Amino acid sequence: MSTPVLHVFAISHYCEKARWALDALGVDHELRHLPPGSHVQTAKDLGAPGSSLPLLVTEERVVQGSGAIIDWAESSLADRSRRLTPESALEEECRSLEQRLDSVAGVHVRRYYYSEALVEHSDSVRPIFTRDLAPPERRSLEENWGRVRQLMMGAMDLGTEQGQQSRCVVEAELDWLDGLLSDGRRFLLGDGFSRADLSAASLLAPLALPREHPTYGVLAVPPRARADLALWGERPTLAWVRRIYRDHR
Ligand SMILES: N[C@@H](CCC(=O)N[C@@H](CS)C(=O)NCC(=O)O)C(=O)O
Fold this sequence. Notes:
The protein is mainly alpha-helical and 249 residues long. It has a domain at 5-82: Glutaredoxin (3-Layer(aba) Sandwich), CATH 3.40.30.10. It has helices at residues 13-25, 39-46, 66-75, 90-120, 126-130, 135-155, 160-181, 195-208, 223-232, 236-248; strands at residues 5-8, 30-33, 55-57, 62-64. The protein has a 4-stranded mixed beta sheet with strand order 2-1-3-4. It is globular, with a radius of gyration of 18 Å. The model has no long low-confidence stretch (mean pLDDT 96). Bound molecules: glutathione (GSH). Glutathione is lined by residues 9, 12, 14, 40, 51-54, 65-67, 102, 110.
């Protein structure tokens, strides 16, 4: 059996979600970092239905999307006790929490962060996009950075106003999660670590910068986000994210 290959961007919180899940489930895999821009052609060559990462290439198929990668990994496990999906009546609630985190917090944390970092301080994110690439890919991305940056700004609809809109959505999602955690629960649902916890922690990691995160050590947070991170730092949700990383990553 060949080892599955997980294609990622080092900065991507969705890629971190898939990578963490494979690690947590004990699924052996290789990591392949792709340059933004040319990742579209790579995904096409691999036969993926869309261009987004994470993308897992196994011996039998190409699995796209962090949630689908968790499903694939669980289906390939011999030891079902390691699952991140609760097998009980909690499964539906767990998947619905994950769906909300993926489609709201995941999208708006990214748009909020990049609307400052990629638009005004793109040197703060370029090193994390380039550092794990093979030398020819790194050179090519450095030469084409201006064009790739413009493409990313268009694709994610970035800008000052958009950043402010997404900031409001992020605060509302933090309020929602603070509310859930206000009864002192250790996990978002049930009494064990699940894919809902892993999703919340990985997708909010750009706001919590947990020490155990595999790539954020090199992230130079731009000034407005730095002020927000200080303002939000002690919110129950972000303290919880740091605890979940400490205990489960
Ligand atoms: N819901 C998807 C979201 C994945 C996603 O948005 N990935 C971004 C990186 S954070 C991406 O690859 N964007 C480039 C593209 O779509 O071509 C998942 O969970 O995997």
